[in-house]
Amino acid sequence: MSSSLRFNLFVGNRFGHFACVSVLAAMGAQASAQALPPVPFPAENPFTQAKADLGKILFWDEQLSSDNTMSCGSCHQPAVGGTDERRGTNPGPDNIFGTDDDIIGSPGVIFQDSLDDYVVSPLFDLDVQVTGRQAPPAVMGMYAPELFWDGRAGSAFTDPLTGELLIASGGALESQAVGPPTSGAEMAHQNRDWAQILAKLTNARPLALASNLPADMAAVIAQGKTYPEMFEDVFGDAELTAGRVAMAIATYERTLVPDQSPYDLFVAGDENALTSTQQMGLSMYRASLCNACHSGAQFTDNSFRNIGVRPLAEDMGRFNVTKNGADRGRFKTPSLRNTGLRDRYMHTGTQSTLEEVFDFYAHRNGLVPFPQNLDPFVINPITFVPPVEAAIIDFLANGLTDPRVANETFPFDRPVLYAELPDANPAVVESGTVGSGGFVPEMVAVTPPNLGNDGFKVGVNRALGGAQAWVALSSSAPVGGIVAQDELLGPITLEGSGDGNGFGTMHWPIPNDQSLDGQVRYMQWRIVDPAAPDGIAYSPVAHFTIFCSMTGVCVNTCPADVSGDGELNFFDVSAFLAAFGAQDPAVDFTGDGEFNFFDVSAFLEAFAQGCP
Q: What does the pLDDT read at residue 27?
């Protein structure tokens, strides 16, 4: 008996023959199951373990963003199926929060101009921006010919900096990887380009902001190598290019194959891997219209379809890429693998349970597709009798969940990101004082204070527009809520005009000086404001501890700076000779455990190269 006949028999008889049809469905479930195919690797980017390890480090390094607050993994966490457990609201096309077109997207970065200064966003003020679509699941991307909801990351991969075609076909993951680091909402200041990204990575301590590293990442980081040295190990020379970054990240992503779900074990011959209810759910699913789009072992046909989630005018989807009228409102069909781990669905992120998804396809409970350019498969309601619907949901939610994904175990393991730490550093303390209009100037302090962070900065908001402002910097704790003027940075003239509309940015690059490791600093804005007590409005205080690396592995990117003062001069030569005479391992420049002429030669070579 065919699966479709079993399905029709069940629907026709409804509850009366449930037990009989359950048995028939279970008998046919295994026949409809398929295993995932081998992962395709482009010929131009073959697999190596070292490349995958490098890609994993890059994928989780928040330093890939312009302000060190976002990694690729920030929006693609395994435990929620490769999507984003964080929630933010984008007001949608009407730019009004709390209306029907709102989108539940991913928090990104605070809006910053091309000079890396904070700028008040009309929608998000000086809070983080939120993406206009929810983050699509990253797991299963290795099989897709195009990526992103609209498919703009195509199969041919071109280096975004040089324009060179690097992969003729099969490079969608590489194409996708180079997008977010330059996105002004997701990871970047405005007009950021790959030349800036590569210059930053060249001098960065790899993965300095992450902690609790998985074993494979920890083993690489423990070697104390810089990114150029890692790239030399993988690609044969130390040059960092956008293409190489993308190839490494894509290689790592191609190792994330979720093929150990109960469904996969069932396919492999374990008849008890799926419960009888899940087996019936699988069989009934395969016999339904759901299988028309979410088909095969991938549980997607990787096509683009308009299912009517929102009106066309709000987001034209695939049409924006192809300019083909038939693609209006079409979005990529996501895989249903690990769908039970997700807490929101559709490109808008506005449906939070599988039950709501089934309501949408059934046109019930107020969820009715918008009819413009609607896919023929969803013009009519797709409905199931309750036991069948429950069985299908059970299969989708549990039968397709790989426990390694859910539990974030290898290869789906990951570090703890800096943004996830319970104790903020910088932390905003004290309360500030009131200025014009009754506003207390707000301290904006989100950038991690790691050594060598040229982009460290603090911002201010809700101050008097056009006012003169300074930032007091001290190593001493504030007294009476006021930071001492050990150093006064500024002045700058705040942007904006009027009470509470002033905003600005103060940059304070942190030297790559290991003597600063562990030192505490306090920063506070001081704004000239005639309405404030004594004519000065004070912001709350930013309290932070400078650090080298969250892993405890502090790569010395300037090894000849033996004195640790951030400069190369006579004091470094003197410090080297003293340490050499004491046979200090710190000056074993060749790493052979011996102290001889070769260490002296290596020191002199490093000294001649200078500091980055």
A: 55
User: For residues 499 and 439, is the Cβ–Cβ distance under 8 A?
Assistant: yes
Report if residue 565 sits inside a domain.
Answer: no
Element housing 189 (H / E): none
Each residue of 501-511: b (16+ CB within 10 Å) or e? bbbbbbbbebb
Q: Report the distance separating Cα 392 and Cα 377, nearest Å.
A: 18
Quickly count: other Cβ atoms within 10 Å of residue 352's Cβ: 14
**pLDDT of 585:** 65
Q: What is the pLDDT of residues 558-597, one digit of tens each?
A: 778 887 666 788 888 988 898 888 887 667 777 667 888 8
Vertex 71 angle, CA 257 and 41, to 5°: 35
Question: If you write DSSP's letter for every residue of 475-535 in order, what string do you get?
Answer: SSPPBTTB---SEEEEEEEPBS-EEEEEEEEEE-PPPS-GGGTT-EEEEEEEEE-TTSGGG
Provide the whole-model pTM: 0.89
Q: Does 26 share its domain with 112?
A: no
Q: CA-CA distance, 530 to 434, in Å (whole number)?
A: 11
Q: Are residues 89 and 55 in the same domain?
A: yes
Alpha carbons 525 and 508: distance in angstroms, whole number: 13
Range of the domain at 524: 422-545
Which CATH number goes with the domain that contains 427? 2.60.40
Give me the DSSP letters along 447-476.
S--BTT-TT-EEEEEEEEET-EEEEEEESS
User: Which SS3 state, helix, strand or coil, does residue 130 take?
Assistant: strand
Domain annotation covers residue 217:
yes
Structure tokens at 160: 């975004």
In Å, how far are 169, 171, 197, 252 from 157, measured between CA atoms? 7, 5, 19, 17
Q: Is 280 helix (H, G, I), strand (E, B) or coil?
A: helix
**pLDDT, tens digit, for every residue of 44-100?**
999 999 999 999 999 999 999 999 999 999 999 999 999 999 999 999 999 999 999
Q: In which residue are the tokens 């894509």 written?
A: 250
Contacts of 282 (CB under 8 A, 6+ apart): 29, 32, 33, 263, 274, 395, 399
Do 248 and 386 fall within a single domain?
Answer: no
Q: Is residue 259 part of a domain?
A: no
